Amino acid sequence: MKTKFFIAFDLGATSGRSVLGELTEDGKLTMKELTRFPNRMMPLDGHLHWNIYSLYEELKRGLREVTGLGITPTSIGIDTWGVDYVCVGPDGSFIGLPYAYRDIQTIGADGRFFENVMSASELYRHTGIQHMGFNTVFQLNEHRNDFGHLNASKFVFLPDALAYMLTGNIVTEYTIASTGSIVNAAARQLDVEVLSAVGTEPSKFGPMVEPGHVIGNLKPEIAEETGLGTIPVVAVAGHDTASAVAAIPATDRNFAYLSSGTWSLMGIETDAPVINDITEKFNITNEGGVEGTVRLLKNITGMWIVEQCLRQWESEGTDYTYPQMVELAENSKAVCIIDPDDSSFTAPANMVTAIDEYCRATNQPVAATHGEYLRSIFESLAKKYAKTLDVFRGLSEYPIERLHVIGGGSRNAFLNQLTADACGIPVIAGPAEATALGNIMIQAIASGDIRNLAEMRKIIAGNIETVTYYPKNHNTKTR
What we know:
By secondary structure, the protein is an alpha+beta fold. It has helices at 52-68, 109-116, 120-127, 136-142, 147-151, 158-167, 174-178, 192-197, 220-226, 240-246, 277-281, 304-315, 322-330, 351-361, 370-393, 413-423, 434-446, 453-463, and strands spanning 4-11, 15-23, 29-38, 41-44, 47-50, 75-79, 85-88, 154-157, 172-173, 183-184, 189-190, 208-209, 213-217, 232-235, 255-259, 263-270, 285-288, 294-301, 402-406, 427-429, 467-469, 477-478.
């Protein structure tokens, strides 16, 4: 294998970027960010939409950057957030702009569905997906009488829609589709009964494909415009968390993972969906993974509470850098323990006040200093992670011997140590750029340069630096 180059487009709900990955014959893997751009929800006629045309232009800008480097890439891959989709008309054009998952019509959409269409338990038994008001199934139900939905010939998830704009071919990539609660968890195909309940059918979607499927080549006009040529576009794990989990540098299955950031996702890999009374009780989700795996995971509020406290203090005239914030927490004591997932912390006008009210309601002391607030939040997050991990211990076929922390939160050394202490197992932090890594390496599997997920993880482990945090009375080690 000679040196290969891969283009990863990694799009989040607030920003996106294009990343160039380079994989050499001797297994050296490097990444370089080429472009970064904002991605904002667009208010229009009282609703929130995504400007998919702006994202499309940014993708082409990233391709032109690659041309400017004089590089011929092997392929292109696109990952995004989950659940949202585009309506495609009979003529192949988009009907309007896609709704954003935070649009007002998603508020209470799950409750209306359960009351009028299908019970929560029945839906969960079909799809194994946690109930959240913005899930695709609830969006389809809310918009079933909209002009775009009535006239759509296809519904296309966002990474697949962008790939369609580049290639002219429509597919439904498995991992992104699984986020929306419209895929039958056992069959790994669109669920006929669930779709029928919201007035549609599988034929309204592109053919289901697995990560690594080649969707098609760049359209000739785009190849000419960008100067790249007609290179392939690969359906990677289109859901960003699926790509991130694929990049975990694990050598066996004896682990849990925590994708850590503003929101945290903790889970394990399984070979089949796990749908039972326990997973339903804890609202645990079965999302699609790479090579037939299932991401059995739980959403947990992450650094959101800290970020909102910092924003409140900044508005009052006190602005902390990240190191200052961590130092404050380290040098303070926790005076209370909160449940980060309590509804009072979802979107309060003042997060500090919300914490105070929670403490009074639970007969706990109220923090007196910023440091006490921060330490209390960090201790609470670590305890929440430990409590959630105990649930997964009871669900896993494998002993959970370590916790892999990936994403931006993997850089938070203080929280990682608290998590190791609370969970009682080593915490391995890194890679921070897991999503782009997973995107790139799934393309390498598609090209035949890497054999499978196991080899992919071995290469990633050999190319990135991780930090291991041991429970108390152990030393932290870097490799």
